[in-house]
Amino acid sequence: MDFGATVCKPLPLCNICPLNKTCVAFNQNKIDLLPVKQKSIIKKERWFSYFIFSFNNKKFVRQRIAKDIWQNLHEFYLEETNTNPEWSAGKIKSWLKKSLNINNPTNINIIVAKKQVLTHQIIQGYFIYVELTSKPEFKTAAGFWLSDAEINSIAFPQFINQFNSKTTIQLQVL
Length: 174
Ligand code: SF4
What we know:
- By secondary structure, the protein is an alpha+beta fold.
- It folds into two domains: 37 residues, no CATH class; 130 residues, Nucleoside Triphosphate Pyrophosphohydrolase (Alpha-Beta Complex).
- Helices cover 19% and strands 29% of the residues.
- It is built from five helices and nine strands, in the order ααββββαββββααβ.
- Strand 6 and strand 7 form a beta hairpin.
- The structure holds iron/sulfur cluster.
- The site of iron/sulfur cluster has 12 residues, from helix 2.
């Protein structure tokens, strides 16, 4: 029997309910008030596209200093959007040129990230690995160029560790 659908329903049948002797709502005359309905949390969707720029066996990394999730952890170059950017090779190349004046990527791989659900946010995105023949100047993102060994010694959010560990990701070479 579905108790919630047949007895303790929006207009509850308290007089025939087998639980009415112990039911707090019934005994305190609060059947209109109890149980308190949980407000459903509306989770904000965020799309994180991480560009892993590689030059001379070093990758660009920065620290997240803003008051936001993952504060003080590290990340790769981030392009955040509210919707799925649906990257393709052509779209990536034109974005690199237009946004960062990068004209010379020699190799581009895109990895679809496994989404991470946080209390108030859903993080989805991509890891886009880009090999470069010259070091770009990033005007809006101060960071460092680190070797893989150095990258392994600093802390990243779990969302990025899926790329660093390369265990549960879907690799799509463009
Ligand atoms: S007595 Fe309590 S549990 Fe039973 S129907 Fe009424 S409100 Fe629901």
